[in-house]
Amino acid sequence: MPDKRSDISKRLLDMTGSVAGLAVLAPFLACVALGIVATSPGPVFYRQMRVGRGGLTFRILKFRTMVDGAEARGPRVTGAGDARVTGFGRFLRRHKIDELPQLVNVLRGEMSLVGPRPEVPEFTALYPEEFARVLQVRPGITHRATQLFRREEELLGAAADARVFYVDKILPRKLAIYLADLDRATFWDDLRTIMRTVFDSGKSIEMEILAGEQRVSDTPLAVLPRRAVVGDETGPELPSRGNVPTSMS
Predict the structure, then answer these.
(1) CA-to-CA distance for 32 and 100, rounded, in angstroms?
(2) Which of 189, 20, 187 is nearest to 107 (CA)?
(3) Helices (H) and strands (E) in the chain, counts
C-alpha cells in the first residue's frame, strides 16, 4: 500500500496529466467524436459501471466502438473479429484511442493515469480477497499488465469460450501482476509506464505464454481460485467451465 507522500505525488501527477492531456487533445477528441457520429448511429460515449478504490463504483467513460445496444446482441467480452464492433471502432480499439475519455475519470479522482484496470462488480466478486487488496489504490488507464496484454482481444477472439478464457486465464494473471506491483511501484515507475504506453513499447511476454497454453490445452490455469459469491458470503470454488458474468473491456 503506497504511503501518504507517494499517494499525494501520484495524485498531483494525475491532475497535471489529465488537465494537460484534455487541453492538448481536445481538437483530436472532437474529431474522434465526429467520426463516431458520422460512421454509426448512437451516442458518442460508452459508460459502464466499474469498481474503484475502496470498492466504490463509478461509471467509466469510453468512446463508443460498437453498434448501439451491443450488450443485448451478444456476450460482454469482446474478442477480435466481433461483428458488433464498427469499422471506425475497430481502429479506435486497435490504437486504444477509445480509452482517452477516461482522462475525465482521472480528473474526477475516480481513476489514476497508472493503476490496475477497473473491472465490473461481477468480476471483483469472483476474486474477493485479491480485489480487496488491489482496490486499495485507484484503478488506472494503463498499467504494466495492460502493456503485457495489449493484444488481449486476439486471444479472446481465438478462444473457444472468450468469457471463460478471460476469467480463468487472463484475469488471474493480471491480478498477480497488480498485486506484485502494489507495494513497489514508484512515481518514476508510473512515468515509465506512461511513456511505454504512449510509444507502445515493451514485449508481451504474458501474451506469448497464454497463446501457447491456449493452443496446447483447455485446462484453466490454477493461479487463483475462482469463487462463487452469494450476497456477502464467499461460496465454494466454481467449476472452470460455468457461465459467468462478463464485461466489455
Answers:
(1) 10
(2) 20
(3) 11, 6
Q: What is the pLDDT along the chain (249 residues), one digit of tens a residue?
A: 566 667 888 999 999 999 999 999 999 999 999 999 999 999 999 999 999 999 999 999 999 998 877 665 655 566 667 778 899 999 999 889 999 999 999 999 999 999 999 999 989 999 999 999 999 999 999 999 988 888 788 888 777 888 888 899 899 999 999 999 987 878 888 988 998 888 876 566 666 666 666 554 444 333 455 554 333 333 333 333 334 333 454
Ramachandran quadrant class, 143 (left: phi over 0; alpha: psi -120 to 50; beta: rest) = beta
Amino acid identity, position 148: L
Any alpha helices (H) in the chain, and if so which ranges?
4-39, 87-94, 102-108, 121-126, 128-134, 144-148, 152-158, 162-165, 171-182, 187-198, 205-216
Cα separation, 46 vs 158, whole angstroms:
25
**Residue for cell digits 448512437?**
42
Amino acid letter, residue 202: G
Domain ranges of the chain: 4-237
Cell numbers 477516461 correspond to: 102
Q: What distance in Å separates the CA atoms of residue 181 and residue 42, rounded to the nearest whole number? A: 39
In contact, 113 and 194? CB cutoff 8 Å: yes
Sequence letter at residue 155: L
Dihedral angle, C-alpha 41, 110, 181, 146, nearest 10 °? 10
- Residue 216's Cβ-count burial label (10 Å; 0-12, 13-18, 19+) is exposed
Helix runs in 40-161, H state only: 87-94, 102-108, 121-126, 128-134, 144-148, 152-158
